[in-house]
Design goal:
By secondary structure, the protein is of the alpha/beta class. It has helices at residues 4-13, 19-32, 127-130, 140-150, 172-176, 191-199, 222-229, and strands at residues 48-50, 69-75, 78-87, 95-97, 118-125, 137-138, 158-162, 188-189, 205-208, 233-236, 249-254, 263-265, 267-271. The chain has a domain at 95-271: Glucose Oxidase, domain 1 (3-Layer(bba) Sandwich).
Length: 272
């Protein structure tokens, strides 16, 4: 995610692209219009659940961000190989937040410890309260309730929030849920709960099925600041969390590795 005011600042202050770049982007956008609408990923057989949304131009993005654009640049009929050119901002679709996304000078995508990208998966289900409160958050009490039912959170676990927000995916305006000031409203982690997970549970990362680790009502981005400030990573816009158990699975995060990255689209799998 990126705050709307930050997006506006970057847009207004960025250097103007060259004529060639403008033509290239126009071509990408035109090609994007013909890509089919997204479908929610379905669980795969053999104890593997795909927690990743398919990247298409119709997939909701943070307000002010452009959708992914794709255009063919090589054809099988001319040379024997097909290839697409891709254009997207890092925080698009199911994507990773590296610490550098929030903390200047912090770890970037390619420097994340690979051992932290395979971890015990904990799923905190707050879908019941999220169904009646768009700004519902994971609290310390929710974490303690999970522990009472399933035991201690494993050391160096990845904790995912299941809010059921995926049900709005077919209607992007409902998924974004913007108020009159243009602020999104959707469930997330509270800053207090994130601090508890980092300090008391030793997690390696946290994820959500919405566009932001923070709920839309948090102007201070407490979850982002706490999690990324502690050197952990986040994953936003996860899919299919209802298809994995609350405890006992393992998550595999196929993180991007471009140098200096603040994040990027990733493939996330749950091994059940």
């Amino acid at each position: 995610m990126c705050a709307p005011e930050i997006v506006r600042h970057v847009r207004d202050s960025a250097p103007r692209p060259s004529r060639r770049a403008l033509f290239g982007l126009a071509g990408l956008a035109a090609a994007a219009a013909v890509v089919p609408a997204p479908a929610v990923a379905t669980p795969r057989a053999g104890g593997v659940v795909d927690l990743t949304h398919t990247l298409t131009p119709q997939l909701p993005v943070w307000p002010g961000n452009p959708p992914i654009a794709t255009v063919p640049v090589a054809w099988h009929a001319a040379g024997g190989f097909g290839q697409l050119a891709l254009g997207y901002w890092e925080h698009t679709g199911t994507h990773l937040d590296a610490p550098a996304h929030r903390i200047e000078g912090a770890a970037t995508t390619e420097t994340l410890a690979v051992a932290d990208l395979v971890a015990p998966l904990v799923v905190l289900d707050i879908s019941a309260k999220a169904a009646v409160d768009a700004d519902a958050v994971v609290t310390v009490a929710d974490i303690d309730n999970w522990r009472a039912q399933h035991g201690e959170i494993p050391e160096r676990a990845f904790v995912a929030l299941h809010s059921g927000w995926e049900r709005h995916l077919a209607e992007p305006s409902a998924f974004l849920n913007l108020d009159a000031q243009g602020r999104p409203h959707a469930p997330g982690f509270s800053g207090e709960a994130t601090e508890y997970l980092v300090a008391q549970c030793g997690i390696v990362g946290a994820g959500v099925d919405t566009l932001s680790l923070d709920c839309g009502a948090d102007p201070d981005y407490g979850a982002h600041t706490t999690l990324l400030g502690a050197g952990r990573y986040g994953v936003e816009m996860l899919a299919n969390l209802a298809a994995v158990p609350p405890a006992g699975a393992t998550v595999v995060v196929g993180a991007p590795t471009h140098a200096g990255g603040t994040g990027g689209p990733c493939r996330v799998l749950a091994l059940t």
